[in-house]
Amino acid sequence: MSDTRSLQGRTLFITGASRGIGLAIALRAARDGANVVLVAKTSDPNPKLPGTVHEAAEQVRAAGGQALAVPTDIRDDAAVAAAVAAAVERFGGIDILVNNASAISLTPTAATPMKRFDLMFGVNVRGTYACTQACLPALTASARAGRNPHVLNMSPPLSMREHWFKGHVAYTMAKYGMSECTLGHAGEFRPLGIAVNSLWPRTAIATAALQMIPGVDVKLCRKPEILADAAWFILTSDARATTGNFFIDDELLAANGVTDLDPYAVVPGTKNFIPDFFID
C-alpha cells in the first residue's frame, strides 16, 4: 500500500510552520508534491528563534512543494479567517489541517503570570479550535470531493494522573485542551468523513523552543523528522477508518514497518532519551 500513499496535490494548512515540528511536517509533504500553507507568527527574523514563515516557504518549494506563507497570529480570529481564505483562493481548498502551534511554560502556579496562562490557552486551546472551525467548510468540501480530509493535532494522550499536572497545571490544561478537541471533533466530524487525530512523541524532540528550556540536553532528544514521518502515515490513511486516535510516534512507525529509529536520534546510537510528558 505504501507505494500508492502520497500527499501529492493535497493542500495542507499547518500552524506553527516556521520551524521545528511544523516545518518538518511541511517538508515531508512537500517531497510528495503537496501544496503547503505555512501559518506562523514569525515573519521577521527573531534573534532567539531561527526561522521565519517566508524562509520556511522557500524550503518547501526547494523540497518539491507549492508554498503559501501567511504570517498569522492564530489568537486573532479575523487573521485566521483571512489565512483560510488566502489558502482557498490560492489552492482551491484545504484537505489537511495540522494544529501544531503551541506555547509552553513549564511553571508552577505561583510562577505563571496570567499573561502567560492566556498565551498558552490562546494559542494551544483557542487557536486549535479557531483554526479547526475556520477550516471546517473547506474540509467538508474536501470530504465531498473524496479527497480524504484530516485534522491532526500535535497533542498528547489524555492521562488524568496528578503526576502530569502538579508541576505545570496551566501548560497541561492547555495541551489537554488540544487533545479534547481531538476527542470531540473526531466524533462531531465522523459523519462528514473528516478524520481528527492526535500525534505525540515518546521522547523529547530537539527544537528551538525546547532549547529555550533550561537544563534540557538536546543530545538526548530525537529530531522533528520522526514526527514528520509519523504524521505522513496518519495523513495518508483512510480518513473514514482512522479517526479519534491518540498516536505515539514510535508505535505508529512500528505499526507501519519502521522499526529502526536510530536515524531520528540527534546523536546516533543514543538509547536513553529524555521521555516526553504525558506518556504513562
Automatic annotation (TrEMBL):
Show the InterPro entries listed in the entry: HSDL2, NAD(P)-bd_dom_sf, SDR_fam
The protein's superkingdom reads Bacteria
Question: Can you name this protein?
Answer: NAD(P)-dependent oxidoreductase
Lineage of producing organism: Bacteria, Pseudomonadati, Pseudomonadota, Betaproteobacteria, Burkholderiales
